[in-house]
Protein 1
Amino acid sequence: MLQSYDYVTMLVYLAFLLGVGWAFGRMSKTTSDFVRGGGKGTWWLVGSSSLLAGISAFTFSGNAAGAYDAGPTLLIIYLANTLAFLVHAAFLASRFRQTRAFTAADVVRERFGPAVEQFSAYYSVVIGALTGAVPLWALASFCSGVFAIPQDTLIVVLGTVVTLYAIKGGKWAVMGNDFVQSLIIYPITILLAILALREVGGVSALIENFSRPDLAADFSFVKEPGQFPGDNFTWTWIIAAFITQFLAYVNLGSASRYLAARDGREATRSALLAAAGMGFGALVWFIPPWVTRMLWSADVEAMAALGEPANSAYAIAALKLLPAGLVGVMVVAMFAATLSTMDVGLNGNAGTLIRNVIPPLRRVLGLSALGDKQLMLAGKIGTLVMGALTIALALYFSKLKGFRLFDAFLQINSLIGMPLIMPMIAGLVVRRLPRWSFFWILGMSAVPAVLSLFAATPWTYSERSLWVFAAGVAATLTAIPFYAREPADYRERVDGFFTKMNTPLNDEERGKSSDAMQASILGKASLAMAGALLFLLFIPNPAWGRYCILAISGSVALVGGLLLLGARAERRRLGANPEPTNAN
């Protein structure tokens, strides 16, 4: 269980996030700054934020449970994520940035028109609190069962911290804190993977254990039908999981990941960073639960109070292997993974509210347009309201019982996520679609999802996902012939949208560089975090434990030092080559 110094670590970390958010607050002066960082984000800042938004505490609980139960099969999800980021880097990231949009709803408006923009905007605002509440609830439920941290207290504290720094600094604070959180997640998870490998006897011993008589069937890559509930981890499941996860990243909605980048080149580099981070993470994040299955399965089964004991597999490895003081850092890493999902959602919803909901609504009501400062205030109020609603929903969910993380997330994705994604994919890859095609594809994709709810025999995740995908493809193909009947102005607008996506930003649109300020703030923050980690050396530990603490602190300090050197070099460059001051 956690010690007093672990709680101190967590409190210091949360205070640190508020400090970073406050430091970035001075960069949020306009709605563009608040919503998308003024479109001036560096590749490493945008990339780390995009990467962190793709993981949550679910990675270390629900997905770790999948790894504990079924060995390497769930890696197909992370292969899909990594390949999607590579597709972004090769084809999409620069084009998404070149839409010159502020929000994903802006992109949808230019592609499909105002009706679809309004549907997308209201849907994202309504569903936004839910998407933030579920991972927050899952994290609190997990930490309550494994680490004995009061569940409701954790929900309120974490939700409040995220809401406060998102209000203060907007997109800048979100990206800055996501970067800081990545500096915690990667070193501590790499360290735990190394310690787990050492405990099991190395990489070769780990692989040999996959064919152990008691593990061989469960740890084979492809399972037999009926071996797992819902025919999970069979060939059909693998295909369905890959398709749904890949398409969840490769659609028009993914544009929001890159709208803060300074230009198409920075967006491309940020996608490469996210791909590298996701691929490398998949190689280290699931070693601990595999080792837990091999060595400490009895400890996992003893966690029956969780309802799904396998959810504790990663935490059991941390409690067994990490030296004193670093268990608190591991809990902080789980906080980081969840907070990065929540803060991106809060900021995205605030942006949609002030860009795509309030202005059209005021026009309909015959009211005058709000000024930039008024919209900024509306965005902050919206962030506060969405944060409070997210906390309230998470508290409500915390009273529910029987939550099975791994299956629940997959089922929700196939039932709700896939039908909504299909028209967003079609709009990206098929130019010749009529105005009404979005709702046609959405409706047809939803048919199998709805039918599955009333089937005499429950549909599996794989069946529902593949039927939704097939229905969406069929609807897209039947819509294409009607494009020729669309009026010329609509077809010109569609052509203009794709032309704009393929047109690089000019110097004026790129605006004045703030790279040095970004690097300076986060360089200093990284060094401060590294220094704080050194206080863990005062906790009694064997020599190897102190070396582990030094390694974690040193890795963070190294990044901080490199950032400060980069800031100094950037200032010298700008002194010799001043850049334009306007930004788009």
Protein 2
Amino acid sequence: MNGLIIMVIAIVVLGAGYLLYGRWLAKTWGIDPKAKTPAYELRDGVDYEPADTQVVFGHQFASIAGAGPINGPIQAAVFGWVPVLLWLLIGGVFFGAVQDFSAMYASVKNKGRTIGYIIEEYIGKLGKKLFLLFCWLFCILVVAAFADVVDGTFMGFAEDGAKIAANGSVAMTSVLFIVEAVALGFILRYAKLGKVVNTLLAIVLLIAGVAIGLNVPIFISKGTWQIIVFVYIAVASVVPVWALLQPRDYLNSYLLVIMIAMAVIGVLFTNPSINLPAFTSFNVEGMGSMFPILFVTIACGAVSGFHSLVSSGTASKQINNEKAMLPVSFGAMLLESMLGVISLIAVASFATGAAAEAGYTTPPQIFSGAVANFLSQLGLPHTVIFTLINLAVSAFALTSLDSVARIGRLSFQELFLDSSIDDEHMEPWRKVVTSKYFATIITLALAFILAKAGYQNIWPLFGSANQLLSALSLIACAVYFKKTNRKGWMLWVPMLIMLAVTLTALVQKIIALIAAPTAGNLLQLAFAAALLVLGVIVALQGLKKLFVEKEAKAA
């Protein structure tokens, strides 16, 4: 087997999934191109702001992609390339894309509200409160994790005090992207230059940022970057989306597309051999059993609960026409699956031990090294390509970081809002906790503490919590479709499978933590137990609405 055949199979399957299954879902659920979307109906210039489809696609794609579709497939490749490929393709089309589309669809049809509101409206207030608490805790975990990743990527000095040139270039380029994004945001909002000009301008800014970053790196310690990053995401989570979120994601989406294009070109022209076995074992030492570990390890690229928060939390508030929902949600997910397949080809191109011998120890390094190997065979400089790919991967960690910070802020605000109480009659304490500034501060303060305390110790919980969130989102959307007389049976199999996967993974994790009661493990145990209890209660409430009431009605 070789990389070119795998990539062609992936393109055919994912393309057919979009053209056949995606369009069928849109037709089945119903899309109204003439409907006034929430972005126009509730336009406030902060969260609700209509944008062109390509801009919202950029936000969606940049927010959901990050480093996830690179890390997951590379880590899960120890089970063999066949299981990884099957889960990326089947999971991407029938699990992930369906979840993302249904979450965005339900949100747009409900005034751009989050999945939490969908649960309140169609399942009950208690379910909503518990779900929002689950989401908020989940977002704190993600912010702490991604902040630690970004800090490490930007860290300008090694332990011996030597400067790290690649990190300095990544840091400078990322800072420039933020400055350029603010400028581009004002241009997109007020200049009205047209799509072609805006696209050309974005590409020019992108190239300029990369060129300056490569030649003028900045070197700052990790501790200082930690403070800078948290200050940045605090600002990014409250400023109007048009001023930073939309244009920054718009810029970064081109960077990620360019990265994928470079990887595809490399595979097309070098046709790397697949040096991994097709299948190794159901049980791999250090990883565990294929069920549930494979399905928890590969989240982004197959199905990820975080995507439902982006689809219903931020992107749905920017959709300018219901027709845009299919490409923005379903399409972005399948492109992410393609990135996951490329990551699989990248790691499989190395012979056993070859990556470590070359100094590539982390998934982003393995991915960047493999793509650089491909393109260097075409005459391109290996060092430059390696730095550029590493830069793209790092940039998207920061992109996902401030998106999830905003979602965490919205979840905390919504946790204390009551639809029966208007702003004028709201109690003083409720006005304080529902303020976007208070919600941002409390969310990021807790995430900062976790990051300082070595959050990497509870990173394994992220996969289980993320996939449990996908099951809860699918349940909520299935209940919504039932209550509104829409066909939702295509959500049932994914939600039941993801429930089985995540509950098994969490129970296994809790048992392992109880067996080794260290201080760090007790913190993990508290999070695991809280997530398990919250998830089970919300799931039971949703499944009761979906199945039990249906049977009672029929009787």
Protein 3
Amino acid sequence: MVAQSNEDGFPSKAYVVVYGCNMNTLANDYIPVSYLNAFVYCPRRFFLEYVRGMFEDNTHTVDGRSSHHVVDLRSKEGKPSRKEDVIHRRSVYFSSETLGIIGKLDLLEEDDGGNKYPVEYKKGKKPKDRGPWLNDQVQVCAQALLMQENGLLLPDKGFVYYIGSKARAEVPLTSDLIQETRRVIAECKMISQSEEPPPLAENRNKCVSCSLNAICLPEEEEVLQGKKVNARTILPSTLDGDILYVDTIGAYLNLSDGNIKITAPGGEVIGEVRIEQLREIVLTGPVQSTTQVTQTCLKNSIPIHYLSFGGMYLGVSSSFLHYHGLLRESQWKAHFDTNVSFELSKVVVISKMVNMRTMMMRYLREENNSDDQVLFDKIKGLIKKAKSSEKLDSLRGFEGMAAKIYFSEFGRYVKPDRRLLFLFNDRNRRPPRDPTNALLSFGYSLLAKDCTGTALRVGFDPYCGFYHTMKYGRPSLSLDMMEFFRQPIVDSVVLSSINNGVFKEKDFHQFQNVCYLNEKGRKKFLIQYQMRKKDLVTHPMFQYRLSYERTIELQFRLLGKYLLKETDRYQGFYIR
């Protein structure tokens, strides 16, 4: 569409939108020019961001957004400003139905001769002894084509301004660059209609600084395909942000100057933390929270988890579901596909049984008891039967038999001098009847909380599982995934804490055959639990070291790749 120009030299009916308007109202199926940049950098990244709507921050994206925020603040609602003999218009939107793209020009510059040029801002430093990268050149060229489509003259050049070095680089808009840009637009349109992701980038060095590396998992994908790859650790070892645990009876949380204050029933402030420091909040028992705190947490995507006084996981309040609807669609399809659901159930059960056997061998092997070897062999035989099982009921039966063997010997994992207080006869819950079971139940509730939070963060529906039966209010997927980590995280914490004398009789509240951790005991357990989650473990498949909390996330990410058919198999997590 070419429109008549007004007195400023802009088309009077062009699709020009100033900063502050909702770009989505024009977007429809238009491809933002920033995604063209992503495509040239890596077609797989374009697919994940544009087609599947997946995005994750890293240092580069946060710094870049911060730098652009400073630029946008100068915009003054898109009104022109004069700097010497040059007119600046900032944050100007154009779209083109013909090209099928839409984009924002960080700066539209007009010289004293009336020539207009696009200027794109980048956070980094100007390349030495070379021009801008091709992906940045294509983005600037696409902006120039949008100018032409909206009635302005096609400029002969554009610019990239590098905030890091406070210098600009010229981008000559040659016929070759224009042709390349049109080719990129055409390929992006074609890929946007595909359900299959493009191949992985050949230059794997790009993956290291890519913000989507924790989602794409390129080297992990190749390992799953059977290729010999020395996978590098992509996920950081730990998660950023703190977890706020509040379990003081009658405490309440309120908001004050961007801080969450925790106040005891008598009015004493017993804690204070800034919103920016938090990753999630866990409230145990009768703890109150103001509407302002809840709303602020929702706005900042900070989930609030609720546990009962006895430690049972009750649920979570969180913001809107993750944008990744395609992942949840594939999750539900797999749930209703009995073959896929059963195979995933086998992965869950087999990994759990392997971990139970490993834990038994760690604690009992030194005794050199021939009867123990019989038990080890029994679980090994059950694992073999589970691998060849064809029915879910049989699978549940094998798991039940392995668990019975595992917990029948659990009391022996405790040091003899600690067995008086921590006598363990069997696994009991709802409610737990002894201190050891109280520790196990509280630990499993925390693990369920962590798996639910991770499921939401990655984009899953935590209530749609494969092995655990779906019931109202039961986070079935979270329960499935936590089976990988019961022994490595919770059981390990419980046994090491008991054997190291962390807990005393006064840390428990016991009455009428019911046993719970009291407030002091819960605080002790939370310290041990958080420390365990930060311990590093070598992943059995990829051979790099990650914290346990990041390993939980990795298992969810890998499940997503499997459900979206980016890999043809899914493997559980097991300890050695």
Protein 4
Amino acid sequence: MKIALGQINPTVGDFSGNAARIIDCSRRAQSAGAGLILFPELAVCGYPPRDLVERPLFVLRNRETAERIARETRGIAVICGLVTPAAAESGKSVMNSAALLKDGTIAFIQSKMLLPTYDVFDEMRNFAPASSQELFNFCGKRMALTICEDAWNDKHFWNKRLYRFDPVEALVGAGGNFVLNISASPFWVGKREFRREMLVTIARNYKVPVVMVNQVGGNDSLIFDGSSLVIGPEGSVIAQGKSFEEDLIFFDPDQLTGGIHEQIAGDEASAYSALVLGTRDYVHKCGFQKVIVGLSGGIDSALTAVIAADAVGPENVIGVGMPGPYSSKGSIDDSRALARNLGISFELLSISDIFCSYGKVLQPVFAGKKEDETEENIQSRARGTLLMALSNKLGAIVLSTGNKSELGVGYCTLYGDMAGGLAVISDVPKTMVYRLSRYLNSRRQVIPPATIDKPPSAELRPDQKDSDTLPPYEILDAILEDYIEDLHSAEQIAADRKFDLDLVRRVIRMVDRSEYKRQQAAPGLKISAKAFGYGRRFPIAAKSEG
């Protein structure tokens, strides 16, 4: 008998679509000789459902859909994640559960015990934890069925554990000899390697096979990489799924052999694949087909446009050049060249007259005052207005092009370059923007070399350079990583990096004072361990440490 892993891409709330995926995958697995197939955490309703679970109809649809899947997959046992009602005394309405569907019925339900409340996770808000878990027998194996976080508390792997109880330890101690884990484990660069080592530690410590099926696809800001794994008792990988695409994986639980499907390797290739997948799913799952990207001739908008073309097809991407009074001819030419290389449409809309009109209207109020960032921001906001007008008229979603470095220190304009429905590279530091762009050009030169080589500039005043306002991006990104991801103090960053303390404090003040901008930004795609958004919750009205 073979066991299969159904690495699918569910959509939150799409019960009929998710069921169709589960049923189709189960039938294909059955035809290939599998007796059991596993699907990811909350595969029936999609993950994360967040406050949708508070709607009684949503919970009812979970049960009805699971029963329908059971009826239509007779002949193969199916394990899939779903929401189930919680006991009234728990204070919560639902639990995060896994159901074993067998012989046309729901034969067994196991609920999640460890509910994460860190980073992007807030499961204690929505779910009641299980008070206990049980083994179930299948083909001579004592199966220990766990759900995602249940496997993330092994004392042999973590220096500091978040929970007192370890469900895997308890189930194996009760006689379990085969660990199953259904997951919705979000991606960040380095996560796949980290997750593999954690699962290897469990397998080696308990000398049991460990099976993990992971969701794939993008849901809002989160990207799920798939990369499902089967680990043998000695820690060897005996089966694995592809990264960033749906897959069906088989393995033999007795011989401990299986299919090894190639995964995308390297930080740049993985990050790029994640961004493409996250963009495609966000656009399509939100009901759009076409996207709009403002093209400045700079590297950020160029990278965003390449991602967009790969995500939704070049025929569905509209590039818009919006030169102003300080835009260089080279930037306009680079935008045209990029659009031509990608095969996307290109529109050129000058903002010079609009900018002059703003100046005339505001002149009586601004009389006697020097030009400053105000006039720069007017240019950016004029561009944002044009992009949103095109969005309304054409029914296309605007992709904003700001990177993590700019968003971190507030080097961006509310209602201007921040306008849009998705901030594609808002979790990509500027230095990584360059790395990704060079990686793309190493495959096929699509980004004009001048775009990569010229000093970065917003081109909102004569001879403007980013370096006029910001430290070199190599220094800025190092400070941001230490402060945002590792929570280091200014003194610690300056000492560890050998940076000037006043410079570090200035950057930190910029970060803290820009919180109000970030909380008004479009959602972004998470590819780092700590992204801006609902995984990083800081107050707006607070005194800066810097």
